[in-house]
Amino acid sequence: MTITTEKGSAEISTMVPLIGDSSFIKACYGKNEGRLPVWVMRQAGRYLAEYRAVRKNVSFLELCKTPELVAKVTTDPVNKFGFDAAILFSDILPILEPMGFTVTYESGGPTVAPAIRRPEMVNELSAYDVRDKMSYVFEGVRAIKKRIPDVPLLGFAGSPFTLACYAIEGHGSKTFDSVKQFMYCHPKESAQLLEAITEVTIVYLQEQVKAGADAVQLFDSWSGILAVNEYREWSLVYSEKIFKALKSLSVPRILFVNNVSPYIHLLRDIDCEVIGVDYRMDLELAMNELPGKAVQGNLDPNILYCPQAEIRERVRAMLGNLTRLDNVIVNLGHGILPDIPEESVATFVDEVHAFRREV
Amino acid sequence: MTITTEKGSAEISTMVPLIGDSSFIKACYGKNEGRLPVWVMRQAGRYLAEYRAVRKNVSFLELCKTPELVAKVTTDPVNKFGFDAAILFSDILPILEPMGFTVTYESGGPTVAPAIRRPEMVNELSAYDVRDKMSYVFEGVRAIKKRIPDVPLLGFAGSPFTLACYAIEGHGSKTFDSVKQFMYCHPKESAQLLEAITEVTIVYLQEQVKAGADAVQLFDSWSGILAVNEYREWSLVYSEKIFKALKSLSVPRILFVNNVSPYIHLLRDIDCEVIGVDYRMDLELAMNELPGKAVQGNLDPNILYCPQAEIRERVRAMLGNLTRLDNVIVNLGHGILPDIPEESVATFVDEVHAFRREV
């Protein structure tokens, strides 16, 4: 099944398998007949000893801006657990910085300042050269591909709505009421803000792919607080615009919406390959709503606090429930939590890889 | 349409319309042919001048425990806005007090102490006589019925899972991770806790109905953070048990699940009359999933920050989208927010009452 070839790069002279033959990429196109691919949202994160060691010496933002460290923390968990895809270590918020925001990370979560509380502030945002200002990210992508050329690498960005949530609220929130109020009261400026973020995001993801990313994921962390019509108007149209702009690059495009269930019927026609499903929604139901698409998900990360045998059982229960497997990428249904034992992650990966449909 | 009769109570000697002929009760049974009934979750709350005036002199918990004040704050918004149902002013947490918890209300939200962090603590909870310890609630119900005998009155309780969330976490949370971890790790004690709360809740709601409540609503505020199987196991079975125990009382039973979409297919068969739908889910889709049931919802409360003309337009858009109206109770899709203008509430009610299907 795996074809080896020589990748046309002076830096990579060894024989490497074609990324397109990986279980991850094949599953994105609904054509995986091998074992199930698995990766974990936030797989390079605080639960990992190697990550915590790196963070003893650098702040979160310094880490994001140091390509060699980005490559190290991105590849460490892949090497340790045998994940079938790597995901660029970065954060969704730094692309806001050159627009005129200060992004800081504290224990209580990130803050973005100044928060947009008056509609006029949208006009004051700066256009900027993404290739230049975000070059540390693209250098990071290249450094990762040097280390693990044969593992599919996901680039990513936050969805425009999710980034706008932080830009308007200034920090995380349970319900982002001030964001809704702003968008209901100032539809023109809201569209302008979402459009500006969309434009930056398109170049940002295009450049990640050009630097070596083999797939891209759009993280829509906060749309799950919207009514259906507002989801369509404030979020979906911008995700669609981004995906259309990436289509010609021919890499799988993944949309993860945290709390996707209320909107799943709207995602049937979005031009992307994979829908990431959060832990709440039944994965088989999601698949049935999305003919022609792959699905990614969706074990509740809290299950990784269970005893190892129970983790295995719940992985089997989730996968055993599915009528198709060729279009499934296994993941958690939310980012992994900081104090989950590494042993449980290994168990999770092992059980996914061991899973075979009993016929 | 409205039949007047003499209610068989010495306290009510005036001629009053049959509650069963009200648009609210008829809609619960899918038989409303008149104008649409409307009420609002938290309609007796801080957005209301009369409520804020009462709260200048008493704490939240004192208010809950003073039947005459309960009757005043319950009936004020009904008299002011012409809501088609009243809902008992109270909170979901006080029934935890006699079990051995201290419930306090501060600006950051309620706290329940001691939080259950060790499974053994479940065994230390006290059984108690609900009729005695919660008598202030039932007196409140009787006092309300004296003031507005011809308006349907909803009694309510929190769902066992939602109450267990507070009992285990000790306070509100975005994701209640510690609750999930407790329930995954201690299934036996979790079931015991949920069962204990269920038993109390059954008597609590039965007594509310006996005191005069014409319908009951179970508020499941936090199940929306659960995977489907956990929703079934940790929440739905207890809601079902409560509803079964209330069946013989022949009052409409309403289940409100905040973020109901991932579980809506499981609610098709639950033995109750009405499903309350949060603002996220398309109301017509919900209705289609629930043949034989009424639906209640579901405008995003943030829409009440919009200009009045826009509020009216969004109400018409929501209702105009529905293929049936005889089983619809209009509400917000979440509790009303404290700084929403009263004018907007009046507009909302007025537009619902003015709505007629254009044939």
Q: Can you walk me through this structure?
A:
Two copies of one chain form a homodimer. The first copy, chain A, is 41% helix and 13% strand. Chain A is of the alpha/beta class. In chain A, strands 3-6-7-8-9-10-11 form a seven-stranded parallel sheet. In chain A, α6 runs parallel beside α9. The longest helix of chain A is centred in the middle third of the chain and has 25 residues. At the A-B interface, α8 and α10 of A face α8 and α10 of B.
Briefly, what is this?
The structure is a homodimer of 359-residue chains. The first copy, chain A, is 41% helix and 13% strand. Chain A is an alpha/beta fold.
What brief labels describe this structure?
homodimer; 359 residues; alpha/beta; TIM Barrel; two-stranded antiparallel sheet
What's the architecture of chain A, going by CATH? Alpha-Beta Barrel
Helices and strands of chain A, in N-to-C order? EEHHHHEEEHHEHHHEHEEHEHEH
The total number of structural domains of chain A is: 1
- Please state the average pLDDT score of chain A: 94
Portion in beta strands of chain A? 5-15%
Which structural class do you get from the secondary structure elements of chain A?
A: alpha/beta
Fraction of residues in H or I helices of chain A: 40-55%
How many strands, what sense, and barrel or not for the largest sheet of chain A? 7 strands, parallel
Radius of gyration of chain A: 20 Å
The name CATH uses for the topology of chain A is TIM Barrel
**Spatial order of strands in the largest sheet of chain A:** 3-6-7-8-9-10-11
Q: CATH class of chain A, please?
A: Alpha Beta
Report the end-to-end length of chain A measured between terminal Cα atoms.
22 Å
Indicate the multimeric state. homodimer
Q: Identify the most extensive interface between protein chains.
A: A-B, 32 and 32 residues
Low-confidence stretches of chain A: 1-13
